[in-house]
Each structure stands twice: as C-alpha cells, then as structure tokens.
Amino acid sequence: MAGPRQGHQRELFYWLALSMAHGVGPVAFARLLRHYQSPEAVFRASAEELSRFPRLSRKTIDEITNFDWAPRVENQLKKVREKGLTLVTLNDPRYPSRLKEIHSPPSILWAAGDFQTEDAAAVAIVGSRGATDYGREHSGRLARELAGAGVTVVSGMAMGIDAAAHRGALEAGGRTIGVLGCGLDVIYPRVNRDLFEKVPRSGVLLSEYPLGTEPQPGFFPVRNRIIAGLSVAVVVVEAAERSGALITADLALEQNREVLALPGRVGSIKSRGTHALLRQGARLVESAADILEEIGPQLGARPASAAKKEEPADLTPKEKQVWDALGAEPLHVDQLSRQAGLTPAGLAPVLLELEIRSLVKQLPGMRYIRII
Predict the structure, then answer these.
(1) Which is more confidently placed, 11 or 2?
(2) pLDDT tens, 99-112?
(3) Residue pair 93/117 in contact by the 8 Å Cβ criterion
C-alpha cells in the first residue's frame, strides 16, 4: 500500500484517500472513522471485516482493500501545495465548529484563504441566480451592513444574489466565505472570475470536492448544507417558489439556524418564495439591524446599533458633511453633492481624501458608499 511515510502528511494522505473512495460520502466516512478511529486503519481492514460493516457496497470494499488510486491522491496533494491551498479535515482544530454540528459535515474542506475566529459570527445571504436589480441592490446593502458590523457573509458564489452579497461584504472591507459546487480550481460561473481572486484575500473560498471537479446540478443542493451549516442564520433575498435558496432555508431549519427573508416586490415571481417564507413565520428583514437583533444571543448579544460605525475622529467640517450624507446605500456623485451641500468642485477633493483614508469607496457609475 503506497503513501507518505510519516507525520501529518501521512495522516492527510489517508484522509484524502478515504474521502475519494467510491461510495464513501460524509455519512459513511464518519461511521468508518468512529469504528476504526483513523482513515489509515480503514485501509488496513480486511475485506471480511469491511463486509460486516453496515451499508458498505461490495464495490467500495473492493476499492478500499485493493487501493490502487494512490497516485491520484498524491497528485491532488501536489496541486494543493502548488496552488497554496489548504485541506482542513474534520479533526483539524481549524474546522468550523458550527459546520461540525450538522448531520453530514464534509470529511475534508478544500480551502483557499484562512478561517478566522470572527467567522464564527457568520450570516448567509442567498437567493435567485436570475436576480432583479432590486434583489441585487438589497443583497449588496445587507452584506455591506453586516460586514460593517463585523459579521462574516456566507454565500454560494453563484450569479445574482450570491455575487451581490460577496461583493457587498468586500466593498465594506469585511470578510466573506464562498462555498462552491465544484473544485476550487474550476471557475464557475466564469462571470464571477473576479470573486475567485478577491474572496480568498478577504475570507475563504471552500469546496468539499477534489480539484478538477466540474460543476454538476446535483452538487449545488448538497453544497447548500455547508452554507447553512457555517452560519448562525440564513437570509433569503429573492427566491422563486422552487429554488435552491429555499432548499438552503429548509436545511437551515433542520440545523436549528434562524431563517429570515427580505420582502420582495408584489407580483414578481422572484418574490413568491420569500413571501412564502414570511407567511410561514420567517423573520422579516429590512436592514442588518433586524438580523443582528434576531441573532444577538448567538453572537454574545451584539447590539443592533453595531450595524453603524462610529464617526471617525479628526474629520474636517467638509469631510463630516460628506460622511453624514453617505451610508451603506450607494449615492451618485451628483446626489451626494446636493445632500452634502457642496459644489462638485468642492466635493471632489473631500472624496479623494476620504478614499485615501479608506472611509468611503467609489463604485461603478460614479457612485459612492461609506465603508461601515
């Protein structure tokens, strides 16, 4: 039986090997681990022993006892090292504690970026891929407000609501976790290529699938349990009656997480799922303050007022006028000029100074937001 000879790399080798075995999903992996204490011990077991193990197929037993895919395991480990990625096993202290609590936590997480202690305060924002402008705007706004309150924003890296949530958190200088339904080295959807570069620098990009795994429809509903599992609460922003976001909401309820929903536009098919959740008792959300109020006990009674940052010290009178006029909602420079009571010529140097101090951020279309 091939494999590395010592230390952590040997242990990691067998964790990865067992996770790649045919028919060994998270539930079977956990059962084998409980019985044999280590993945390496599973590979030492005889076919006769394994045949007495409940619900283990003959094909799986033959694969484990023959174990002829060591080169594939080594190749994956080599790529992990080359790409600067991390494998986080279920017994690794870095494994997110909330995720470990769910029914079928992934045996291994493939990660780009590093987990931080503050990621324990995480909220998922999910919704339609084909989001409306309304949905994208409010998804980004909620994410900016949550990130400004020190909450990590979790989503699924899809188009629409997910992408707006990730971008909102990044715009606010906060942390975000993106959970994929494919390998970390597969950029899907390609329109979100920029997020694949930015998220690991300000959070973590996660997958339970080996490198090179292409997206398949069945992977995304399975992926959703991780999104819910990482989070204290799941906020649904725009969802049709049948949507992945509602699957995530159901999983959140099964995992004893809070489910909240943003009301949508009346008559829009994108609002039917969220309105159904509200009728079923989901907490209505208009701002991050509503979310923080709901999840306060899990976050150490963090006050709703945490969604707003205190005014920075040493602002000049003109900088204070601009700071007061701005918020988490983007403002076009013309509107900002009027609300701040400054001419465009007088506003420009003030905005430049605030940008240099990382207090405001310019968005496409000459719009500005306060970094809260």
Answers:
(1) 11
(2) 999 999 999 999 99
(3) no
| Residue 230 DSSP symbol | T
E strands along 34-146, which residues? Answer: 86-89, 108-113, 122-127
Helix, strand, coil distribution of the chain in percent, nearest 5: 50, 15, 35
Q: Which two tokens stand for residue 98?
A: 């909330």
Tokens 């402008």: give the residue.
133
Q: Per the structure block, which two tokens stand in for 124?
A: 């998922």
Q: What phi and psi values does residue 283 have, to the nearest 5 degrees?
A: -70, 130
pTM: 0.82
Q: What does the alpha-carbon distance between residue 157 and residue 143 come to, in Å, rounded to a whole number? A: 14
Give the Cα separation of 204 and 120 in Å (integer): 13
d(CA 41, CA 34): 11
Identify the pLDDT of residue 301.
Answer: 45
The Cα 57–Cα 372 span in angstroms is 54
Sheet holding 367-370, edge to edge: 331-332, 367-370, 360-363
Q: Rounded CA gap, 330 and 353, in Å?
A: 18
44-78 residue pLDDT tens: 999 999 998 888 999 999 999 999 999 999 999 99
What's residue 260's pLDDT?
Answer: 96
CB count within 10 Å of CB 312 equals 13
Contact 177, 323 (CB under 8 A): no
For the segment 258-273, the average pLDDT, to the nearest whole number, is: 92
Tokens matching residue 255: 């995992």
Cβ 85 vs Cβ 238: under 8 Å: no
Q: What is the pLDDT of residue 24?
A: 95
Give 362's strand partners: 368
Q: Which residues contact 218 (CB under 8 A, 6 or more apart)?
A: none
For 342, the enclosing helix (H) or strand (E) is none
Two structure tokens written together for 288: 């991050």
Please classify residue 70 by burial: count the beta carbons closer than 10 Å to its beta carbon, then call 0-12 exposed, 13-18 middle and 19+ buried. Answer: middle
Q: What is the arithmetic mean of pLDDT over 155-177?
A: 96
